[in-house]
């Protein structure tokens, strides 16, 4: 689940999620649709800082997964700090690319090379 906030001065409609957000309105959604992801990238909405943090014991060991499983897991992550931590230890290029893409989606501008 993710909470998003309309950053536009007017109403924002996200059809594939069935949303109509007034200026400054926040809403929690179950999953990110393609149009929500696009709105996040375009900075039409932003993730709310009021989201509950995922406890550290729920972090997963990407190194124990194959690349496909690791990428699928990365695409579910919302914590920029956790993603940055994985970028420090991950060696597989495809997984590193997925981590970098996900960091951009969740709003972290500091991607480690």
List the keywords:
two-stranded antiparallel sheet, alpha+beta, 113 residues, elongated, 3-stranded antiparallel sheet, 4 helices
Structure write-up:
The chain is an alpha+beta fold and 113 residues long. It has 4 helices and 5 strands, in the order ββββαβααα. The chain has helices spanning 34-41, 67-74, 80-89, 93-106; strands at residues 2-6, 12-14, 19-21, 26-29, 45-47. The strands form 2 sheets. A 3-stranded antiparallel β-sheet has the order 4-1-5, covered by helices on one side. A two-stranded antiparallel sheet has the order 2-3. A hairpin with a 4-residue loop joins strand 2 (12-14) and strand 3. Helix 2 packs parallel to helix 4 and helix 3 packs antiparallel against helix 4 (93-106). The longest helix is centred in the C-terminal third of the chain and has 14 residues, at 93-106. The chain is elongated, with a radius of gyration of 15 Å. The two termini are 29 Å apart. The model has no long low-confidence stretch (mean pLDDT 82).
